[in-house]
Write the C-alpha coordinates for this entry.
Amino acid sequence: MPKTELKIATRKSPLAVWQTEEVARRVKALFPDVQITLVKMTTQGDVMLDTPLAKVGGKGLFVKELETALMDGTADIAVHSMKDVPMELPEGLELPVVLDREDPHDAFVSNQYSCLEDLPENARVGTSSLRRQSQLRARFPGFQVLDLRGNVNTRLSKLDNGVYDAILLASAGLKRLGFGERITRVLDADESLPAIGQGAIGIECRANDPEVMELISPLNDPDTLVRVTAERAFNARLNGGCQVPIGGYAVLREDGSLYMRGLVGEPDGSLVHRASLEGPQEQAAEIGVALAEQLLREGADRILRDLGLNPVQPPSGD
Ligand SMILES: NCc1[nH]cc(CCC(=O)O)c1CC(=O)O
Protein backbone atom coordinates (compact mmCIF):
# COMPACT_ATOMS: atom_id res chain seq x y z
CA MET A 1 0.00 0.00 0.00
CA PRO A 2 1.50 3.38 -0.96
CA LYS A 3 2.36 5.79 1.80
CA THR A 4 -0.19 8.58 2.31
CA GLU A 5 1.82 10.89 4.54
CA LEU A 6 5.40 12.14 4.30
CA LYS A 7 7.04 14.14 7.09
CA ILE A 8 10.12 16.06 5.98
CA ALA A 9 12.71 17.37 8.45
CA THR A 10 14.41 20.64 7.56
CA ARG A 11 16.37 23.47 9.11
CA LYS A 12 14.49 26.74 9.42
CA SER A 13 16.79 28.94 7.33
CA PRO A 14 15.19 30.41 4.19
CA LEU A 15 17.53 28.37 1.95
CA ALA A 16 16.86 25.10 3.79
CA VAL A 17 13.10 25.71 3.65
CA TRP A 18 13.28 26.56 -0.06
CA GLN A 19 15.19 23.34 -0.75
CA THR A 20 12.76 21.28 1.30
CA GLU A 21 9.76 22.85 -0.40
CA GLU A 22 11.38 22.03 -3.74
CA VAL A 23 11.57 18.37 -2.69
CA ALA A 24 7.94 18.57 -1.51
CA ARG A 25 6.86 20.09 -4.86
CA ARG A 26 8.59 17.32 -6.80
CA VAL A 27 7.14 14.52 -4.67
CA LYS A 28 3.69 16.12 -4.89
CA ALA A 29 3.94 16.40 -8.69
CA LEU A 30 4.54 12.64 -8.91
CA PHE A 31 2.28 11.54 -6.03
CA PRO A 32 -0.53 14.13 -5.70
CA ASP A 33 -2.32 12.15 -2.99
CA VAL A 34 0.54 12.16 -0.51
CA GLN A 35 0.08 14.58 2.35
CA ILE A 36 3.36 16.36 3.08
CA THR A 37 4.32 18.06 6.35
CA LEU A 38 7.49 20.05 7.01
CA VAL A 39 9.12 19.48 10.41
CA LYS A 40 11.21 22.65 10.92
CA MET A 41 14.13 22.23 13.30
CA THR A 42 16.97 24.25 14.76
CA THR A 43 20.42 22.68 14.51
CA GLN A 44 23.58 23.42 16.46
CA GLY A 45 24.97 25.23 13.41
CA ASP A 46 22.00 27.60 13.46
CA VAL A 47 22.51 28.49 17.10
CA MET A 48 26.21 29.35 16.87
CA LEU A 49 25.76 31.85 14.07
CA ASP A 50 28.26 34.36 15.40
CA THR A 51 31.15 31.94 15.74
CA PRO A 52 33.38 31.45 12.70
CA LEU A 53 32.52 28.04 11.21
CA ALA A 54 36.13 26.90 11.34
CA LYS A 55 36.12 27.48 15.11
CA VAL A 56 32.73 25.89 15.80
CA GLY A 57 34.25 22.57 14.78
CA GLY A 58 32.53 19.22 14.90
CA LYS A 59 30.97 17.36 12.06
CA GLY A 60 27.35 17.36 11.07
CA LEU A 61 26.55 20.67 12.77
CA PHE A 62 23.65 21.28 10.41
CA VAL A 63 22.32 17.72 10.19
CA LYS A 64 22.46 15.92 13.55
CA GLU A 65 19.10 17.06 14.92
CA LEU A 66 17.46 16.17 11.60
CA GLU A 67 18.96 12.68 11.78
CA THR A 68 17.63 12.22 15.29
CA ALA A 69 14.16 13.09 13.95
CA LEU A 70 14.55 10.33 11.33
CA MET A 71 15.64 7.78 13.92
CA ASP A 72 12.83 8.52 16.38
CA GLY A 73 10.16 8.69 13.66
CA THR A 74 9.41 12.43 13.97
CA ALA A 75 10.25 12.64 10.27
CA ASP A 76 10.46 10.23 7.31
CA ILE A 77 13.07 12.06 5.28
CA ALA A 78 15.52 14.92 5.85
CA VAL A 79 16.59 17.36 3.15
CA HIS A 80 20.18 18.64 3.29
CA SER A 81 22.66 20.70 1.32
CA MET A 82 25.12 17.93 0.41
CA LYS A 83 27.92 20.30 1.36
CA ASP A 84 26.83 20.09 4.99
CA VAL A 85 26.47 16.29 5.24
CA PRO A 86 29.32 14.41 6.99
CA MET A 87 30.96 11.58 5.07
CA GLU A 88 29.77 8.91 7.52
CA LEU A 89 26.09 8.53 8.26
CA PRO A 90 24.72 7.10 11.52
CA GLU A 91 23.91 3.40 11.59
CA GLY A 92 20.42 2.78 10.20
CA LEU A 93 20.29 5.85 7.96
CA GLU A 94 21.13 6.24 4.28
CA LEU A 95 21.28 8.99 1.69
CA PRO A 96 20.13 7.33 -1.53
CA VAL A 97 18.81 10.35 -3.45
CA VAL A 98 20.57 13.46 -4.76
CA LEU A 99 18.68 16.02 -6.85
CA ASP A 100 20.03 17.51 -10.07
CA ARG A 101 22.77 19.98 -9.24
CA GLU A 102 22.28 23.74 -9.25
CA ASP A 103 25.27 25.93 -10.23
CA PRO A 104 28.08 24.51 -8.03
CA HIS A 105 30.39 27.54 -8.36
CA ASP A 106 31.17 30.31 -5.91
CA ALA A 107 29.85 33.80 -6.58
CA PHE A 108 31.64 37.15 -6.29
CA VAL A 109 29.18 39.78 -5.06
CA SER A 110 30.08 43.45 -4.80
CA ASN A 111 28.26 46.76 -5.10
CA GLN A 112 31.32 48.68 -6.37
CA TYR A 113 33.72 46.26 -8.02
CA SER A 114 33.13 44.04 -11.03
CA CYS A 115 35.61 41.24 -10.28
CA LEU A 116 38.38 40.15 -7.91
CA GLU A 117 41.06 41.82 -10.03
CA ASP A 118 39.32 45.20 -9.62
CA LEU A 119 39.50 45.15 -5.83
CA PRO A 120 42.07 47.36 -4.05
CA GLU A 121 45.17 45.62 -2.74
CA ASN A 122 43.96 45.54 0.87
CA ALA A 123 40.29 44.89 0.07
CA ARG A 124 37.95 43.59 2.78
CA VAL A 125 36.47 40.36 1.47
CA GLY A 126 33.88 38.43 3.43
CA THR A 127 33.62 34.66 3.31
CA SER A 128 32.73 31.94 5.77
CA SER A 129 34.88 29.23 4.30
CA LEU A 130 38.57 28.40 4.71
CA ARG A 131 38.49 26.86 1.23
CA ARG A 132 37.52 30.20 -0.35
CA GLN A 133 39.90 32.10 1.90
CA SER A 134 42.87 29.87 1.03
CA GLN A 135 42.37 30.16 -2.72
CA LEU A 136 41.74 33.89 -2.48
CA ARG A 137 44.80 34.66 -0.35
CA ALA A 138 46.98 32.54 -2.63
CA ARG A 139 46.22 34.95 -5.49
CA PHE A 140 45.70 38.17 -3.54
CA PRO A 141 47.87 38.05 -0.39
CA GLY A 142 47.00 41.66 0.49
CA PHE A 143 43.28 41.07 0.89
CA GLN A 144 41.82 41.14 4.39
CA VAL A 145 39.60 38.10 4.56
CA LEU A 146 36.86 38.72 7.11
CA ASP A 147 34.49 36.12 8.48
CA LEU A 148 30.98 36.19 7.08
CA ARG A 149 28.33 34.00 8.65
CA GLY A 150 24.56 33.96 8.79
CA ASN A 151 21.98 32.99 6.23
CA VAL A 152 22.13 34.26 2.65
CA ASN A 153 19.93 37.31 3.32
CA THR A 154 22.04 38.32 6.33
CA ARG A 155 25.25 38.02 4.34
CA LEU A 156 23.91 40.26 1.58
CA SER A 157 22.79 42.91 4.09
CA LYS A 158 26.23 42.89 5.71
CA LEU A 159 27.69 43.63 2.27
CA ASP A 160 25.12 46.36 1.66
CA ASN A 161 25.93 47.93 5.04
CA GLY A 162 29.50 48.51 3.92
CA VAL A 163 31.22 45.96 6.13
CA TYR A 164 32.96 44.42 3.11
CA ASP A 165 34.14 45.51 -0.34
CA ALA A 166 32.98 42.17 -1.70
CA ILE A 167 31.74 38.82 -0.46
CA LEU A 168 32.07 35.26 -1.74
CA LEU A 169 29.30 32.72 -1.31
CA ALA A 170 27.71 29.82 -3.14
CA SER A 171 25.91 30.75 -6.37
CA ALA A 172 23.36 28.01 -5.70
CA GLY A 173 21.99 29.58 -2.54
CA LEU A 174 21.67 32.99 -4.19
CA LYS A 175 19.90 31.60 -7.24
CA ARG A 176 17.49 29.45 -5.26
CA LEU A 177 16.42 32.36 -3.08
CA GLY A 178 15.87 34.66 -6.06
CA PHE A 179 19.05 36.72 -5.55
CA GLY A 180 20.64 35.57 -8.83
CA GLU A 181 20.86 39.15 -10.08
CA ARG A 182 23.05 40.04 -7.09
CA ILE A 183 25.81 37.80 -8.51
CA THR A 184 28.41 40.19 -9.88
CA ARG A 185 30.51 37.38 -11.29
CA VAL A 186 30.52 33.61 -11.11
CA LEU A 187 33.99 32.29 -10.19
CA ASP A 188 34.96 29.37 -12.40
CA ALA A 189 36.36 26.19 -10.88
CA ASP A 190 39.97 27.20 -11.56
CA GLU A 191 39.52 30.50 -9.70
CA SER A 192 37.64 28.98 -6.78
CA LEU A 193 37.35 25.21 -6.72
CA PRO A 194 33.92 24.43 -5.26
CA ALA A 195 33.29 22.53 -2.03
CA ILE A 196 32.44 18.84 -1.98
CA GLY A 197 28.76 18.54 -2.89
CA GLN A 198 28.20 22.27 -3.38
CA GLY A 199 24.93 23.02 -5.18
CA ALA A 200 23.51 19.53 -4.64
CA ILE A 201 20.51 18.70 -2.43
CA GLY A 202 20.42 15.27 -0.78
CA ILE A 203 17.61 13.29 0.80
CA GLU A 204 18.40 11.16 3.85
CA CYS A 205 16.05 8.49 5.16
CA ARG A 206 15.91 5.34 7.27
CA ALA A 207 17.52 2.32 5.63
CA ASN A 208 15.07 -0.37 4.50
CA ASP A 209 12.04 1.88 4.20
CA PRO A 210 10.62 0.84 0.80
CA GLU A 211 7.47 2.99 1.11
CA VAL A 212 9.55 6.12 1.52
CA MET A 213 11.99 5.01 -1.20
CA GLU A 214 9.09 4.70 -3.64
CA LEU A 215 8.28 8.38 -3.11
CA ILE A 216 11.79 9.80 -3.30
CA SER A 217 13.76 7.57 -5.70
CA PRO A 218 12.29 9.21 -8.85
CA LEU A 219 13.89 12.50 -7.70
CA ASN A 220 17.42 11.11 -7.97
CA ASP A 221 19.72 12.52 -10.65
CA PRO A 222 22.28 9.80 -11.53
CA ASP A 223 24.84 12.25 -12.98
CA THR A 224 24.84 14.40 -9.84
CA LEU A 225 24.98 11.30 -7.64
CA VAL A 226 28.07 9.96 -9.40
CA ARG A 227 29.83 13.36 -9.20
CA VAL A 228 29.00 13.79 -5.53
CA THR A 229 30.08 10.19 -4.86
CA ALA A 230 33.56 10.95 -6.23
CA GLU A 231 33.77 14.20 -4.25
CA ARG A 232 32.66 12.60 -1.00
CA ALA A 233 35.06 9.66 -1.37
CA PHE A 234 37.85 12.21 -1.87
CA ASN A 235 36.84 14.12 1.26
CA ALA A 236 36.41 10.94 3.31
CA ARG A 237 39.95 9.83 2.43
CA LEU A 238 41.28 13.21 3.56
CA ASN A 239 39.15 13.04 6.69
CA GLY A 240 38.15 16.62 5.93
CA GLY A 241 35.66 18.85 7.67
CA CYS A 242 34.94 22.57 7.88
CA GLN A 243 38.27 23.33 9.59
CA VAL A 244 40.37 22.46 6.54
CA PRO A 245 40.72 24.28 3.24
CA ILE A 246 39.63 21.45 0.94
CA GLY A 247 38.04 21.79 -2.47
CA GLY A 248 36.81 18.94 -4.64
CA TYR A 249 34.83 19.13 -7.83
CA ALA A 250 33.92 16.40 -10.32
CA VAL A 251 32.34 16.80 -13.76
CA LEU A 252 31.21 14.28 -16.36
CA ARG A 253 32.72 14.55 -19.83
CA GLU A 254 30.64 14.05 -22.95
CA ASP A 255 32.08 10.54 -23.37
CA GLY A 256 30.83 9.69 -19.88
CA SER A 257 34.19 9.76 -18.14
CA LEU A 258 34.58 11.55 -14.83
CA TYR A 259 37.10 14.36 -14.39
CA MET A 260 37.85 15.50 -10.88
CA ARG A 261 39.93 18.36 -9.51
CA GLY A 262 40.93 18.60 -5.85
CA LEU A 263 42.92 20.87 -3.60
CA VAL A 264 44.19 21.12 -0.06
CA GLY A 265 45.60 24.46 1.04
CA GLU A 266 46.98 26.38 3.98
CA PRO A 267 44.29 28.65 5.43
CA ASP A 268 46.45 31.72 4.69
CA GLY A 269 46.96 30.66 1.07
CA SER A 270 50.73 30.38 1.44
CA LEU A 271 50.53 26.91 -0.08
CA VAL A 272 47.82 25.24 -2.15
CA HIS A 273 48.27 21.68 -3.41
CA ARG A 274 46.21 20.90 -6.50
CA ALA A 275 45.71 17.72 -8.50
CA SER A 276 43.28 16.24 -11.00
CA LEU A 277 42.35 12.77 -12.19
CA GLU A 278 40.12 11.29 -14.88
CA GLY A 279 38.57 7.85 -15.27
CA PRO A 280 35.42 5.85 -15.92
CA GLN A 281 32.42 7.12 -13.95
CA GLU A 282 31.74 3.58 -12.74
CA GLN A 283 34.87 4.09 -10.60
CA ALA A 284 33.77 7.43 -9.14
CA ALA A 285 34.64 6.54 -5.54
CA GLU A 286 38.00 5.01 -6.53
CA ILE A 287 38.89 8.16 -8.48
CA GLY A 288 38.06 10.34 -5.48
CA VAL A 289 40.21 8.21 -3.17
CA ALA A 290 43.12 8.04 -5.65
CA LEU A 291 43.02 11.82 -6.08
CA ALA A 292 43.12 12.30 -2.32
CA GLU A 293 46.09 9.95 -2.03
CA GLN A 294 47.92 11.83 -4.78
CA LEU A 295 47.45 15.10 -2.87
CA LEU A 296 48.54 13.48 0.40
CA ARG A 297 51.75 12.29 -1.25
CA GLU A 298 52.37 15.76 -2.68
CA GLY A 299 52.30 17.39 0.75
CA ALA A 300 48.66 17.72 1.77
CA ASP A 301 49.27 15.26 4.59
CA ARG A 302 51.60 17.78 6.22
CA ILE A 303 48.96 20.54 6.05
CA LEU A 304 46.28 18.29 7.49
CA ARG A 305 48.58 17.06 10.27
CA ASP A 306 49.54 20.63 11.22
CA LEU A 307 45.85 21.46 11.46
CA GLY A 308 45.50 18.65 13.99
CA LEU A 309 43.81 16.19 11.68
CA ASN A 310 44.92 12.72 10.93
CA PRO A 311 44.54 11.95 7.25
CA VAL A 312 46.97 9.10 6.85
CA GLN A 313 44.95 6.13 7.92
CA PRO A 314 44.09 2.96 6.06
CA PRO A 315 41.54 3.53 3.27
CA SER A 316 38.06 2.79 4.55
CA GLY A 317 37.59 0.10 1.95
CA ASP A 318 34.25 1.20 0.50
N1 LIG B 1 27.86 26.22 4.42
C1 LIG B 1 26.50 26.68 4.33
C2 LIG B 1 25.89 26.36 3.01
N2 LIG B 1 25.49 25.11 2.73
C3 LIG B 1 25.01 25.10 1.44
C4 LIG B 1 25.13 26.39 0.94
C5 LIG B 1 24.77 26.84 -0.41
C6 LIG B 1 23.93 25.92 -1.23
C7 LIG B 1 24.63 24.72 -1.76
O1 LIG B 1 25.87 24.65 -1.82
O2 LIG B 1 23.91 23.80 -2.16
C8 LIG B 1 25.66 27.21 1.93
C9 LIG B 1 25.92 28.65 1.84
C10 LIG B 1 27.23 29.06 1.19
O3 LIG B 1 28.20 28.33 1.18
O4 LIG B 1 27.30 30.21 0.70
Summary: The first strand starts at residue 5 and ends at 11. Residues 81, 83-84, 169-170, 172-173, 198-199 surround PBG (CB under 6 Å). The chain has ten helices and 13 strands.
